[in-house]
Amino acid sequence: MSTKEKVLEKVVLKENISLNNEIVLFNDDVNTFDHVIDTLIRVCSHTPEQAEQCALIVHYNGKCTVKTGPLKELVPQCIQLLEAGLSAEIV
User: Fold this and answer.
1) Which residues pair with 24 in a beta bridge?
2) 62's torsion region: left (phi>0), alpha (psi -120 to 50) or beta?
3) Helices (H), the chain
4) For position 20, what pLDDT does the model report?
């Protein structure tokens, strides 16, 4: 290769798309632990242990991330949590 030739390099950047959308569940004085646990199992596919831990975290910390993922999957789940009387939002 002569010095006059230029070598071009193509740089490909790959960006990882993170699943940074979260459903955050908030504490309230209305719902029972059993209702919260049952709803998390039904709506978010939590195991009973996961749901119980989330319920305890919400109770003691005021909030807990209960699900992460693509927005298109979280929206229907968040709506179901709200329809069940829980306080939740997507952040």
Assistant:
1) 65, 89
2) left
3) 33-44, 48-61, 71-83
4) 85
Report the alpha-carbon distance of residue 16 to residue 22 in Å, rounded: 17
- Cα distance between residue 52 and residue 57, in whole Å: 9
What CA–CA distance (Å, rounded) separates 61 from 68?
Answer: 19
Q: Is the torsion defined by CA of 41, 44, 49, 51 positive or negative? A: negative
Q: In sequence order, what are the beta bridge partners of 64?
A: 25
CA distance 35 to 79: 16
pLDDT at 1 over 80: no
Could you tell me what percent of the chain has a pLDDT over 70? 79
Express each pLDDT in 39-76 by its tens digit.
Answer: 999 999 999 999 999 999 999 999 999 999 999 999 99
Q: What does the alpha-carbon distance between residue 77 and residue 23 come to, in Å, rounded to a whole number?
A: 8
- pTM for the model stands at 0.79
